[in-house]
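Morning!

As promised:
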Amino acid sequence: MNNLNAEKENFMRRAVELSDFGMENKYGGPFGAVIVKDGKIIGEGFNKVVSSNDPTAHAEIVAIREASKNINNFDLSGSIIFASCEPCPMCLAAIYWANIDEVYYANTKKDADKIGFRDDFIYNEFEKIIEKRDKKFCQILRGEAMKVFDSWASKQDKVEY
Amino acid sequence: MNNLNAEKENFMRRAVELSDFGMENKYGGPFGAVIVKDGKIIGEGFNKVVSSNDPTAHAEIVAIREASKNINNFDLSGSIIFASCEPCPMCLAAIYWANIDEVYYANTKKDADKIGFRDDFIYNEFEKIIEKRDKKFCQILRGEAMKVFDSWASKQDKVEY
């Protein structure tokens, strides 16, 4: 194995270590994540859904928020995320919004499903049209909301992301 | 129109108002969200991606985090979210994780696409297999990570979510 692969395995081992720490200390589920840029860890996290009463506090989200804070930028271009499990849809989309370049993962969403997590169910919901989903979706007041979108479109001093 | 619909329109108007406030005050993009339980607002938010340097600070995520904090529970069962735009994949999955029952939205992901947001692009990424996505995905060290999943499976005192 070359040095680059060994380095990647070490970052993943840190993500797995975090997943174990969070679980054992009752912060939440068995998930950890590490974000690396230029060979250095810029953010890491483990699942804190239970301890922080925050359903969005998945390992990857915690790591992304920490990394963004640390480099003072919402754009994490040039970075790699190491996640102890294949990211759920929330975390996957967050990785896109953060412009993280590459995703290394260990366990899969099927593995997560087998120990009681809904990742796979939620992925399947994405494949359904809105009317067929397991949740009621209803569109109202588009006309009023579009006025704000129109203002954004014509705004001169906006910061895009 | 009956009172129930008028009430729902008023909650959506609040979400639209928040979207305008956040945009005008340069917190981030033109998006607002309100979470309602038993007829009362328990959390609200507007996009703060730019102002907080947090790529996950979408209106719905901000509102979910606030609602969970306010009711001291990561489970928002029995609540409804009013979002000024159809939730992006990150926010949609967060709504599932939070067990929010219903989703009211105004603008669509296509409307968001037209004013420069990547919601629609990210939704399309979900339809691709991992190997075909616009980002590199690589699985490593599943054996080591599975040990932690096995520990979770046999753990007696875990809190599930």
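Helices of chain B lie at 3-24, 59-71, 89-97, 109-114, 119-126, 142-154.

Hope this helps with the figure draft.
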